[in-house]
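PROTOCOL LOG
Step 1. Enter all chains and additional molecules of the complex.
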Amino acid sequence: MRELGTNKENTWCTGCGNFGILNAVKKAINSLVAEGVPLADIVMTSGIGCHGKIFDYLALSGIYGLHGRAIATAEGIKLANPKLTVISFGGDGDSLGEGLEHTLFAAKRNIDLTLILHNNGNYGLTTGQFSPLSTLGYKGLSTPFGSIENPFRPIPLLIEAGATFAARGFSAKPDHLASLIHQAALHKGFSFIEVMQPCVSYNNNYTELNNTVKMLDIVPANLNQAIDLAGDSDNVYLGVFVRKQLPVYNESLLGSFIPVKERFTLAQRRKMLGS
Amino acid sequence: MRELGTNKENTWCTGCGNFGILNAVKKAINSLVAEGVPLADIVMTSGIGCHGKIFDYLALSGIYGLHGRAIATAEGIKLANPKLTVISFGGDGDSLGEGLEHTLFAAKRNIDLTLILHNNGNYGLTTGQFSPLSTLGYKGLSTPFGSIENPFRPIPLLIEAGATFAARGFSAKPDHLASLIHQAALHKGFSFIEVMQPCVSYNNNYTELNNTVKMLDIVPANLNQAIDLAGDSDNVYLGVFVRKQLPVYNESLLGSFIPVKERFTLAQRRKMLGS
Amino acid sequence: MLQTNSLLPQMNKPKTILIGGKAGEGVKKAAQVIAALLCQNGYHVFQQDDYQSLIKGGHNFSGVSFAEEPVHTGYQKADLIVSLDKRSLQTHINDCNSGAIHCFNSDDCLQTMDQDSSVTLLGYPLNAMMKEVYSKPSNVSMAALAICFAWLGYSEELLCDTIAKEFKRDVEDNIRYAKEVFKLCHPDFLSTNLSIPQNSIPLLPGARLLSGNQAIAQGAWLAGLDFYYAYPMTPASSILHYLALKQQTYKTFAIHAESELAAANMAIGSVFAGARTAIGSSGGGFALMQEAFSLAGMAEAPLLCIVSSRPGPATGVSTYTAQEDLMFALYQGHGEFGRIVASPDSAARALTLTAELLSLAWEFQSPVILLTDKHLSESSADVAVSQVVESCSLPDEPNLTESTDTYNRYEFTDNGVSPLRFPGSDFGDDSLMIKWNSHEHHPSGLRTDSSESIKAMKDKRNLKSRGLQEATKNYQRIAVYGDSGPVVYAYGSTVLELREAAKHCSYKFRIVALIYLLPLAIDDLQDYIRDEAIVVEHSSTGTLATYLQQNLTLKIKKSILHYDGRPFDPIELALLIEEAIDA
Amino acid sequence: MLQTNSLLPQMNKPKTILIGGKAGEGVKKAAQVIAALLCQNGYHVFQQDDYQSLIKGGHNFSGVSFAEEPVHTGYQKADLIVSLDKRSLQTHINDCNSGAIHCFNSDDCLQTMDQDSSVTLLGYPLNAMMKEVYSKPSNVSMAALAICFAWLGYSEELLCDTIAKEFKRDVEDNIRYAKEVFKLCHPDFLSTNLSIPQNSIPLLPGARLLSGNQAIAQGAWLAGLDFYYAYPMTPASSILHYLALKQQTYKTFAIHAESELAAANMAIGSVFAGARTAIGSSGGGFALMQEAFSLAGMAEAPLLCIVSSRPGPATGVSTYTAQEDLMFALYQGHGEFGRIVASPDSAARALTLTAELLSLAWEFQSPVILLTDKHLSESSADVAVSQVVESCSLPDEPNLTESTDTYNRYEFTDNGVSPLRFPGSDFGDDSLMIKWNSHEHHPSGLRTDSSESIKAMKDKRNLKSRGLQEATKNYQRIAVYGDSGPVVYAYGSTVLELREAAKHCSYKFRIVALIYLLPLAIDDLQDYIRDEAIVVEHSSTGTLATYLQQNLTLKIKKSILHYDGRPFDPIELALLIEEAIDA
Ligand SMILES: Cc1ncc(C[n+]2csc(CCOP(=O)(O)OP(=O)(O)O)c2C)c(N)n1
Ligand SMILES: Cc1ncc(C[n+]2csc(CCOP(=O)(O)OP(=O)(O)O)c2C)c(N)n1
Ligand code: SF4
Ligand code: SF4
Ligand SMILES: [Mg+2]
Ligand SMILES: [Mg+2]
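Step 2. Run joint prediction.
Step 3. Record the structure below.
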């Protein structure tokens, strides 16, 4: 079991759901490594927000990118070196607000990446404003009289956009979450994991979640069922909603070619251009 | 019947589906005016693309905005003066590529606007590159070996995001389309109309569409059915898929207040601040 | 001892209180409550916060500097420090003026540190007392309040009233805890006998504690703000928060959009419909608004853009201060179009300047930029709001319903400013067609690509732009502080730092504060360019110095650069100025 | 008549062919085919297009100017005009040189216009003939080809071969139609006897017709381009199109992303993984890439950014040319970080300069900007590719796999350039941790907000930036054309226009072409700043003139501004220069 930590002081609030996610990720990576994936081949990107700080706490190569753009950055990495296993960490503001477009296009392309969405129902790092996943009536500094928007339903939305793997985990169930991350990383295609992540400072829904989470026993038989289950507002189902095989973008584009390895030399380029 | 045209030379290709859309819009506006909506209260925004040129051909006030941002601009208009009926025209590249985020958030908010999507399956104005709605394998200048992405399904996607009115029309059936636009404009909430618009220059699917369009007789009984019908790839159903009443954003925000009409005077503001 | 320990401000020597603790412990709020009270008592105050990008834990500290004279920026060294945790005690052990009192939480740290012998270190068992009092969520910032109240000589009664007013939750526990701590301090207080002479200072009429961002929001609102669109980004976020909170009283709407791109384009929609509108962000968010900023130039949309800087590039350092975005602000937007850029040099100026800018935007139907920085945005000072508001002369908002034959949105006129009309049956009849266009256009607003029309419309916009630049002459474009000595150039919060430093500098100097940055007030500046100049800025490459030299024939003797994200301490800055003058 | 009508180029007097018609009629393609052929025959050519933002209809025209001497830009007045429709005939009726031939479609317009008596107007029934020949989709551009071939003295055989090679569809009908038209012209041709002396001119070895954008793409590829990310935007789109087409031969991948924001951030991902990467757009799209541009500065990502300008602001005029984005390009990105900006002054230079810039980007791990404009991007000229490629000296790409003890992405070094490593087991072992960060960071790449670290890392980047600026000295930073006479400053496609104008000006002048714009080559320019200067640019406010004056002690005698979206006609420009010199 590798530690996978860094020497950076952790600045998440005590009790924050992000700790559970960090542990689950470490566990999943250890499983991958145990199964033969070189650690050097696992890279990460993250957005900006409390979730993004995971970049500082994980001993993985990667890019701590711009708010909302982590998934686009991840796509660029995957295309340049498709041998890498790329995991991207996003917040609900990050991946479904500022960066919604990139998230849905990554799913549409079925590019072989994993997106872990830290769903804490608010903008934690910027002091708790409402987010695209905040419930109607949520009071934050930008909505002091309550949010007047309904939240997106992330899993149904991502499935509609084209995600071929979609699952939900809970930061308080890190073993289950680790198994989801492990499956997602191995899944060939775009994998989306919504992680219910209580934010003790602005959206402490531990109790509520503990009361409403239910385990999915099997992957739902068809898409409509998956969407209905994922969109259920009384029960927060945890597990895999969709898993299917479709052509992946990086392979359609590159075949077996690895751009960063199989480059022409300057001499070759000179010759080809000149002739 | 008002003409509603301008003196601007029309530069769409002969046979372009946009002509049918233009006619349908004029007809729908005439119906609205006949029913008592002041013409002065109908405004438009448009994106950049062949679709956007409708701005130059329609005698309506409005903003010929930036590529992808027409719907955001429309939201700003509606909030400042909720008495206006706001119709936004977008292309598939415009509203579902560059501006996807705004389109989905407008639906999420259920803001009282109409978005008419000119679905010609390509970027017409920039010479036929593939678009978010181009079919797999589509060859354009940016995908000379064929697109390797599946298209979005616009109506299911918009319904998932929160559109409370979703319909599909066909530019070659301008009367039916006019009726859809008329209904959409009167619908309170976010209305989305996908218009199948053949592009004779780059994606001439007239024959294909003529062979596959089918009329929906009634609004589907439930959401799953609506989505299945809208997503049917063998039959292109035309009609209204979803129509429901939910609180609209502009009313939740403003109540009956009309910002541009009920403004404090400078003297009032001075007094309020000073005290 | 009474003299040096006294928290009573002496001429030119503001006193400083510093409260340190973990994020989430209420350090900032406590400092603000104290600052507001001092302000109410007639003191001039400056309150500033040093915090990290985290929600709980870490180390935050907030300072309150106050005096009978205006205080322009905070001091690093304090006369009273309250350290709620060990890190705070360690970090600030040397941040004491001679004779200072440093109270710390003896439950979190045993005092074993080296210390300046003139400093009195007092440990109080704040945790233990908290445990006794509170049933559930405890609030250690009450201890900070109590200690400060005690040392300032405020009464227990006032302490209790203030807590009841300012902290809505757990009032009883809070008061009980505060009282306990207050009692502990009281003997110390008595022995030094440092009570503030209540009412001995005339109340500053109408003075209120205002952060720069609050002042900006109020200024915009004064000039008619109807809508504010933004996406949260430190240090601009609190404009959004403040205006959102004021929705019901101000009837102004602050919308947290899905992104900066959305915010900026929504804003242009609202402007089109007739609403006075602003957008705001920090550098990274404003970068995302550039295309729309250029649209405002083309469509001739009056739009106020507020940029509050933090250290860059990219995400940079979210919660600290910088002036790295000068060139970025001056040259934003692709294509050529006019704009003005101005930067307030105090909270009071933030109010009037924002109002001016929004008015100018509407007079000339142009985008305008208010450039500021974290130190000014988020720090608070006493502002005599009613006087400031009164002093702010603004044109009346024009009545826009008069009709013309055929309306052309971009009509050619003598000054390049076309008549503005709004859509809707409330503002015109069915024949009124108002077309705004992101393409080059005819006067009608319909698109064109004809050679003559492109040229004509560019000439019109350039004409208008010259008028806009000229019109800035109606406002105060530079401010000069000091009446003799070498000239020191600065803008934004650096001016605050310089004004405070002037109190401690052995040489006199004149601060030339650039309020309008574009256009530069070249003519107003003529009086100051003869001598060798000093330029002070929070930038690592000296962009202000560069910009001045690009536009004035100016010899720069010394460019003082500070770029670690922290504001200058006025005493340190005074030394740097002395060195520069001596050099 | 033989003399004046001759399409054979005379010394310094290029001949010009102009083909006009509706969009969608193949006007541009026909012109390019002719230009390519002339180029193959050893002529120097310049081919440029004037088109509107529409797909079918409207009025497009394409010019081909050619000569035995280099031709730097196209001429407005032609020696042979082919007008495929009435609008074309009307529009270009006065665009004739004396002795020109203007062939038009007599089925679309009866020739009843006033005309210069020296011009021969010839009407051919192009529609009727088309109807006879074609079963389904007809192609009137074949007529244009046939007419040009006839007048140029090319054989029917060559006409047929060329059509078969260049137009894949409907080959037989096309050839039949072209032959019919060719026959019609032939008698005219015979009577003037203007055949091109085949092979009398030595072939320019390796000369190929290349558009500016193709040259940019080839230059980038030469320097190792692996990925190009973009979102289509005129006039940058054809870089995307060209590279997409070359995917299989070049093994470079051109990705049409969902937006410019996506493109720019994807690009940084690819760079991180070790791929040489570029992005490109016009002003509006580049505005959307600004935040990522700043990220490239912070993360120290080598990234080539290509900006091809069109008239702004906002959507502006999509298909025309301008140089309005100079300041925008110079000062992009919030926060302070180094970059260079350069602009090619010919298609050949576009190739070498792009290669240089991408190499410099990698040498200094910095973003770089190649600024160009529609006229250079989309016009084509003969380029001796193999010679140009040979002349381009580029550093070898470093081998990056050597290992160090612990790797720190942002290690402090003597020159501020930190070692670069790539992720993946192919490039390092499990202990290699490579952290790129958009926040201010420690050498390890982990985030920091400490005062000392912020300062140190800014100092490091500034040091590196000075090195980058210094390194531009290894390349040609300015080009001077002409050896005596007044100095005329310009950059980008304006240099082409000036070089052509020089042939027609009664005074000699020296063109100082600024290839590197940031940093300005102040030292190289010292030789030229003594005299009063003329500055020529496609801008309405004279930003180049302003920029030069900000940075050089330069007296500008005359600033010649052209801002209607059209390139200068060299003869008109020559007159303006004469006026300026005389003034
Ligand atoms: C372009 C840009 N806009 C705004 C910000 C400020 N910002 C930082 S994090 C954040 C929101 C974080 O919310 P979320 O993504 O949900 O992350 P969380 O903190 O909740 O984990 C914002 C708005 C930024 N860094 N960049
Ligand atoms: C920011 C920006 N990027 C790119 C463009 C160039 N552009 C203009 S229209 C267009 C695509 C048009 O496609 P679509 O929206 O489907 O409209 P259509 O022409 O098919 O109606 C693009 C990429 C632009 N104007 N602005
Ligand atoms: S604010 Fe919320 S999400 Fe952020 S660290 Fe604290 S508990 Fe976690
Ligand atoms: S290119 Fe296509 S969409 Fe555009 S005008 Fe022509 S037919 Fe219509
Ligand atoms: Mg969140
Ligand atoms: Mg389209």
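Step 4. Note key features.
Residues 209-391 of chain D form a domain with the Rossmann fold fold (CATH 3.40.50.970).
Chain D has a mean pLDDT of 93.
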